[in-house]
Design goal:
- By secondary structure, the protein is α+β, with helices and mostly antiparallel strands.
- The protein has 2 domains: about 5-90, no CATH class; about 95-170.
- Helix content is about 35%, strand content about 25%.
- Strands 6-7-8-9-10 form a 5-stranded antiparallel beta sheet, covered by helices on one side.
- Strand 9 and strand 10 form a beta hairpin.
- Helix 1 (about 5-10) packs across helix 2, helix 2 packs antiparallel against helix 3 and helix 3 crosses helix 5 (about 155-170).
- Bound molecules: zinc ion (ZN).
- The site of zinc ion has 8 residues, from loops.
């Protein structure tokens, strides 16, 4: 059975946190996406689907960010179409993502690696004990800094790539 229809059934059946008291069903927002390369972790909402494409969902009345699959994300934000668009955007950029780290990154005056891609400028830099990334549009109308710190420079670069994927999915 295709992953998506299986996940629909799991949501309908109220698996995992879908039937747990204190977990909101609606009003979530996607704050991050991630391609793990292969199905690796369990969906944090239905707790019954192994997922590869991870939607990070945040809710004002819930203490932690949940890492969930496409259909759970869609129901949580009340917009399954938006979640599907994000997921297909991640899928279509898989090959590009593989080449991302080996592209020619330039070095800024502050000695930070940066690159231009898809109409954005990405800079990664040391923050605290780890690495962070900033994604800005060419005309600086949008400047966004990563919310998390990453252990390695490569992880920060990949997070920036995924962030751009999410921004591109929003535009369509
Ligand atoms: Zn799920």
């Amino acid at each position: 059975m295709p992953t998506e229809s299986r996940e629909e059934q799991i949501v309908a059946a109220g698996r995992g946190k879908w039937s747990k008291a204190g977990v909101p069903h609606k009003g979530w927002q996607c704050v991050d996406i991630e391609d793990l390369g292969e199905p690796q972790i369990e969906c944090g909402m239905c707790e019954s689907q192994t997922i590869r494409y991870v939607h990070h969902m945040e809710h004002p009345n819930y203490p932690e960010v949940l890492e969930v699959g496409c259909i759970c994300a869609g129901h949580m934000e009340g917009d399954v179409a938006a979640a599907r668009t994000r997921e297909s955007s991640m899928k279509s950029r898989t090959h590009k993502r593989k080449r991302w780290l080996s592209r020619k990154w330039k070095i800024s005056a502050k000695c930070n690696p940066w690159i231009k891609a898809d109409g954005f400028r990405v800079t990664v830099y040391r923050r605290g004990s780890g690495w962070a990334a900033t994604v800005s549009s060419q005309n600086n109308s949008l400047v966004q800094h990563s919310r998390r710190n990453y252990k390695t420079e490569d992880q920060a670069k990949l997070a920036a790539f995924d962030h751009i994927t999410r921004l591109l999915a929003k535009e369509t």
